[in-house]
Design brief:
Elements (H helix, E strand, L loop, with lengths): L1 H12 L21 H9 L23 E3 L2 H10 L7 E3 H13 L11 H16 L23 H27 L2
Parallel strand pairs: 1-2
Helix pairs in contact: 1-6, 4-6
Length: 183
């Protein structure tokens, strides 16, 4: 779900400038998308056809500007697979808090602008900038960095996942919209 929403919303802002892909730490390879997720994506006007789960592999970690995980456990697994990504790996909720702190700090200059080189530079530098706020916005409860996994859980857990995930994705997209608009 995060992949589809983030890809679509970033593509609305900057068509073709972002590559957003997902893979699971313990994926049920080739499994279709959960029906509840399909239904939610449909209500958001997003297409879900053709999706199948894939396992995270070393080759997926060759050159991402940013790696987002749903839980701290996933983040730790990702970093264990590719230690070079330590400073570019966050949970999506953790990154959302850091982006809010960056936006509120006039002393930090985020690269602005809409052109491809400016967008590329912004996202290349984003992990370093976000890391400046990592300890300033630590969650008081470590679980606050996680998005619950609704797999094989009842609808209340799925709804909790949506409540945890969507505001974080909104913050990532709002960050890009503000930075692009300021240029």
């Amino acid at each position: 779900m995060a992949e589809h929403v983030l890809r679509h919303r970033l593509d609305e802002l900057r068509p073709g400038m972002f590559e957003v892909r997902s893979a699971g730490i313990q994926a049920l390879v080739a499994a279709p998308m959960d029906q509840r997720t399909q239904a939610l994506l449909h209500t958001l006007g997003l297409e879900s056809s053709g999706f199948t789960a894939r396992q995270l592999e070393d080759s997926h970690l060759d050159s991402p500007d940013l790696a987002l995980a749903m839980t701290t456990g996933h983040r730790d697994s990702l970093v264990a697979m590719a230690p070079r990504l330590l400073k570019r790996t966050f949970t999506v909720r953790e990154l959302a808090r850091m982006l809010a702190a960056l936006a509120a700090d006039p002393a930090i200059r985020v690269p602005c602008g809409r052109a491809a080189p400016e967008v590329s530079e912004r996202w290349r530098r984003l992990p370093q900038l976000a890391s400046l706020k990592r300890y300033a916005v630590l969650a008081t409860d470590p679980a606050a960095d996680d998005v619950v996994d609704p797999y094989r859980q009842d609808d209340s857990v799925f709804e909790q996942m949506v409540r945890e995930l969507m505001p974080a994705l909104d913050r990532v997209v709002a960050f890009e919209a503000a930075a692009a608009g300021a240029g």
